[in-house]
Specification:
- The longest helix has 14 residues.
- Helix 3 packs across helix 4 and helix 9 packs across helix 10.
- Strand 28 and strand 29 form a beta hairpin.
- The strands form 6 sheets. Strands 24-23-22-25-26-30-27 form a 7-stranded mixed β-sheet, sandwiched between helices. A 6-stranded parallel β-sheet has the order 6-11-10-7-8-9, with helices on both faces. Strands 3-2-1-4-5 form a 5-stranded parallel β-sheet, sandwiched between helices.
- The chain folds into 5 domains: 126 residues, Rossmann fold; 125 residues, Rossmann fold (3-Layer(aba) Sandwich), CATH 3.40.50; 104 residues, Cobalt-precorrin-4 Transmethylase, domain 1, CATH 3.40.1010.10; 99 residues, Methyltransferase, Cobalt-precorrin-4 Transmethylase, Domain 2 (2-Layer Sandwich); 181 residues, Rossmann fold.
- It is of the alpha/beta class and 690 residues long.
- It has 24 helices and 30 strands.
- It comes from Candidatus Choladousia intestinavium.
- Pfam families: CbiJ, TP_methylase, TRM5-TYW2_MTfase.
- This is Precorrin-6A reductase.
- Its EC number is 1.3.1.54.
């Protein structure tokens, strides 16, 4: 069956797709961005593929799709993309047709319009640097870094870009403020262009020669009416055809009969893509725990990839069985893909992985790297299964956790689970974990296995101090056993559980409600601004074992108390930060949640900083004065915050007076909560679930 492929993302591409739908021709439209997919109208006989592709990916996409022809309707300035499409079509032996956008300005009109023509954005920025006045850019977000770097005063820039969150965030990362960003979808009328030029006070308009389709005449007319200088980035010279000519060529290809001889030629010339790739878990050691299925697949492979020790062991197996295969000491998926793309002769491939392919294995992303190939997974004996059998102990009642090549909160896991199997990178990780256990005074039994299934295998048991230092070398795994796990994980530690000093502390009753309103998740990143003693920070850290909490406090005494309370409650994922917000927030990772217990008069600046770091952040604030509440409500309105929660909490505690209990009122506290992703009906985010 015949079908066409359009590389679009432009108005011309959408117009060509609409025409094909009217002709009832099956076709696919490729767009680079989510926004490009959103503006495509659903229609019969059309499918949309979203995502950028390099030349190699295009070749595979074209061959797998068996398209009759390709129409390149990408933007006239997307020169590199068109170059890749043309090359991919040549390699896939598929007809390529370039759809050109109508040009606008002729050479003789340049003088009349008083236009300045430049070759690229770099030249435009250089020309503008020597002149004064505001600049209205309509060249797209990709060109923005050139102007920000090329102009000594980027505040002159006003950029009109596509209305996508990713694009706007990119503008902000470049240092542009909200008033400098016009996020809108064109083309625009002359009146709209004129209004925006007048509103920004621009002296210069920078545009590409986008032709009539891209609204070029309307921009020129608006600038002419206001007496604004126009800088035009010239369109790259290229060959192609008009929309009418492209339509005629596609009609010819559609009507062209196909015979069996042509089909046979196509089958002979198009490469076979259905490569078979086996991801094999080889177990522990030098193939001593290799399964029979894994052994069979290794012997059938034409080429084997894996770490040096694995391909060396595979080579020994092949030699014993009088078999031959190409051995490549490479385990990184992208590198393997590059190798196979340049060596299509290999149809049977094996990639070797330590242990089991489903347990913290590099096999995880292989299927995504080879979407057109047949990828299968051969399980192996994992390090945990082998280690548990050698101790011996069960592992179905244990937590499986890894800090192999990454950071992790081991202390938080041990407090939750009586048994934790821990994958580590080497003896240095064993020492670091055992030192943490001693620092937090954890009564934990430690078992360390090294070089499992190798002749030098060792399994040792003891207390954390027995492994300082860790004298074994090679590959390691640990089992941590804790008989004093905490059963309940809810906010509400008593006030007496914290060191207080003379620093104010959020009371237990208020703390319970405030932390609950944060709606924390296990991997949340939390800022506690104005942390005081760190009571809220500790509660959050205990509820987020996979996350991180930053307690920001300007008082040195408070910082000392935060560190004492963090150690007291064994929260290794709590970091004290001395300073005043928002300045103290600079350099910290982007937060998912924030609690504000004190702002030192900087509430507006703090909220702006938090929302700039993460527009979807969940924020909870505590206040005790009406003035603070009034300021907060005003700021929420200014920031366009909707669906906020505001409530007052009045709590009383009983105290004994002889035979009686009298109630003592605590200070009433206002709680303001807003932001975060809205939950769907029936869902709940609970940090205490494992």
């Amino acid at each position: 069956m015949k079908k066409f492929l359009i590389f679009g993302g432009t108005l011309e591409g959408r117009s060509l797709s609409e025409w094909m739908s009217c002709m009832e021709w099956p076709h696919t439209v490729c767009v680079a961005t989510e926004y490009g997919e959103e503006v495509m109208e659903p229609a019969k006989d059309v499918s949309v593929h979203q995502g950028r592709m390099n030349e190699e990916e295009m070749v595979r996409f074209l061959i797998h799709g068996k398209y009759t022809a390709v129409a390149d309707a990408t933007h006239p300035y997307a020169v590199e993309v068109s170059k890749n499409i043309r090359k991919a079509c040549e390699r896939a032996k598929i007809p390529y047709i370039r759809l050109l956008r109508d040009g606008q300005e002729k050479e003789q009109e340049r003088e009349k319009e008083n236009l300045v023509y430049v070759e690229d954005s770099k030249e435009a920025a250089k020309w503008l640097e020597g002149r004064q006045g505001k600049i209205f850019l309509t060249t797209g977000s990709k060109e923005l870094p050139v102007y920000v770097e090329g102009l000594s005063d980027p505040s002159r820039i006003f950029a009109r870009v596509l209305p996508s969150a990713k694009v706007v965030e990119g503008c902000r990362e470049l240092g542009l403020e909200g008033k400098q960003i016009c996020a809108m979808q064109g083309p625009f009328s002359m009146e709209m262009n004129q209004a925006m030029l007048r509103q920004t006070g621009a002296s210069y308009l920078v545009t590409k020669d986008t032709g009539k389709t891209g609204g070029f005449p309307e921009k020129l007319q608006a600038a002419r009416n206001l007496g604004i200088q126009v800088i035009v980035i010239q369109r790259p010279a290229e060959e192609g055809a008009s929309l009418e000519a492209v339509q005629k060529e596609l009609e010819r290809l559609w009507q062209q009969p196909s015979c069996e001889e042509e089909k046979e030629t196509e089958r002979e010339t198009r490469p076979t893509l259905r490569r078979r790739i086996s991801c094999i878990g080889i177990g522990m050691g030098d193939f001593g725990t290799l399964t029979l299925q894994a052994r069979e697949e290794i012997l059938k492979a034409q080429i084997l990839f894996g770490a040096q020790r694995m391909v060396k062991a595979a080579g020994s197996l092949l030699e014993r069985e009088n078999q031959e295969a190409v051995l490549v000491p490479e385990y990184r998926g992208e590198k393997i893909r590059e190798y196979l793309m340049s060596h299509p002769e290999f149809e049977r491939v094996a990639i070797l992985f330590s242990g089991d392919v489903g347990f913290y294995s590099g096999a995880r992303g292989i299927r995504e790297l080879f979407p057109e190939d047949q990828v299968e997974y051969i399980c192996g004996i994992s390090s945990v299964v082998y280690f548990a059998s050698r101790i011996p102990t069960s592992w179905q009642d244990a937590k499986l956790y890894s800090i192999h090549g990454k950071a992790g909160n081991v202390i938080g896991q041990i407090q939750r689970w009586p048994k934790v199997f821990l994958l580590v990178s080497g003896p240095e990780d064993v020492e670091r974990v055992c030192r943490e256990l001693e620092d937090f005074q954890m009564d934990v039994r430690v078992t360390v296995g090294s070089n499992l299934a190798y002749p030098q295998e060792q399994i040792r048991r003891g207390n954390p101090g027995d492994f300082l230092p860790c004298k074994t070398r090679g590959l390691h795994i640990m089992l941590l056993e804790n008989t004093n796990v905490r059963k309940c994980w809810m906010p509400g530690l008593p006030d007496e559980a914290f060191h207080r000093g003379r620093v104010p502390m959020t009371k237990e009753e208020i703390r319970i409600l405030s932390v609950s309103k944060l709606k924390l998740e296990p991997d949340s990143v939390v800022y506690d601004v104005g942390a005081g003693t760190g009571s809220v920070s500790v509660e959050c850290a205990l509820l987020c074992p996979e996350g991180q909490v930053y307690a920001i406090e300007r008082n040195p005494e408070g910082i000392q108390l935060i560190e004492e309370n963090a150690k007291l409650h064994r929260t290794a994922n709590l970091t004290a930060v001395q300073g005043t917000a928002p300045e103290a927030l600079a350099g910290l990772p982007s937060p998912t949640h924030a609690f504000i217990g004190g702002s030192s008069g900087n509430l507006k600046e703090i909220l702006s900083c938090l929302r700039e770091k993460n527009p979807e952040i969940r924020i909870v604030m505590n206040m005790i004065t009406l003035e603070s509440v009034g300021e907060a409500v005003t700021l929420l309105k200014e920031m366009g915050i909707q669906e906020e929660e505001i409530f007052q909490v009045s709590a009383s505690r009983a105290r004994k007076a002889g035979r009686y209990h009298l109630m003592t009122a605590l200070n009433p506290v206002y709680v303001v909560a807003f932001g975060g992703k809205r939950e769907k009906r029936g869902e709940s985010a609970c940090a205490c679930q494992d």
